[in-house]
Amino acid sequence: MGWLLITRFTLQEAIRRRLFLTMAILTLLMLVLFGLLIHAAIDRMQANNVANGTDPTLPTIYAGIAITILAMWLVYLVISTMTIFLTISMISGEIEAGTFVLIVPKPLRRAEIIFGKWLGYALILGLYTLLLSLAFMGIIYWFTGYWPTYAFAAIGMLEISMLVLLGLITLCGAFVPTAANGVIAVMLFMGAFISSIVQFAIPAQDYMVQNITAVISLIMPTDAMWHGASYYLFPAAIGVLQNFSVSSVNTPFTATQPISPQLLTWAILYSL
Predict the structure, then answer these.
(1) Domain extent listing, the chain
(2) How far is CA 9 from CA 18, 96, 100, 231, in A?
(3) Helix H segments across the chain?
(4) Contact indicator for 233, 72 with CB cutoff of 8 Å
(5) Rounded to an integer, what distance in angstroms lies between the CA atom of residue 80 and that of residue 69?
């Protein structure tokens, strides 16, 4: 059970470096600022609706849906950035510093060390993703009354996206230096995002472009996971909202249908 020991050491190291404290303080500041902005925007919108003699309830729900999409996209970017910068040196950094030379000869296999570190960071980032997502959704619900019907399905997609990125960094960290590992992660992450924009802009009949973007999604399925999450952020009973449908907000940042089971299965296997 050497991997449990490495996982514990990874968590202890995060505490020693005050990683949790830093994340908590910065996140709290971000949430306070977000809450103040939402409060001001919703109050002004509702005041304008009342002044015009219209019921502000439905526009507030619309605003809640839009803000939820934007806020969770921010969560997606934050956790992806943190995953890259917190973990790019977890394997390659140990190799470059010579720590592996001291640890591996002990009664610990190399695979146990790598898995233990992966699990430690997965726990840290997974918990952070869950709490940050719930915090944003809670603030939005407080001011707009909107809570996604499948909120936890959306959060699950974000968790898988984080694990996909963590899995890639862990794999590359065993073979390439830290700087190269970071470059690979950033370029593939950005490439997946750019491919979704290209796919949106190019007609669906262009099968070559569609095939290329499909291959990119297989190589780096993070953006596909975000699109899967965005689908679950819309209300389930969307038909009851007047003049609103998922297709009416079809953008490069959202999806009009859930992610395919095959791609979801691939992303889960990819992260492991």
Answers:
(1) 2-271
(2) 14, 19, 14, 38
(3) 2-16, 19-51, 57-87, 92-97, 99-103, 110-144, 151-173, 178-201, 207-219, 222-232, 261-271
(4) yes
(5) 16
Q: According to the 3-state scheme, what is the secondary structure of 107-166?
A: CCCHHHHHHHHHHHHHHHHHHHHHHHHHHHHHHHHHHHCCCCCCHHHHHHHHHHHHHHHH
What does the pLDDT look like over 55-69, one tens digit per residue? 777 888 888 888 999
Alpha-carbon span 110 to 119, nearest angstrom: 14
Q: Which two tokens stand for residue 135?
A: 């915090």
Residue 84's nearest CA partner among 183, 8, 201, 198 is: 183
Burial of 108-129, coded b for 16+ CB within 10 Å and e otherwise, reads: eeeebbbbbbbbbbbebbbebb
Q: What is the pLDDT of residues 70-117, one digit of tens each?
A: 999 999 999 998 888 888 877 766 655 555 555 555 566 777 778 888
**Contact yes or no for 68/137 (Cβ under 8 A):** yes
Backbone Cα Rg of the chain: 21
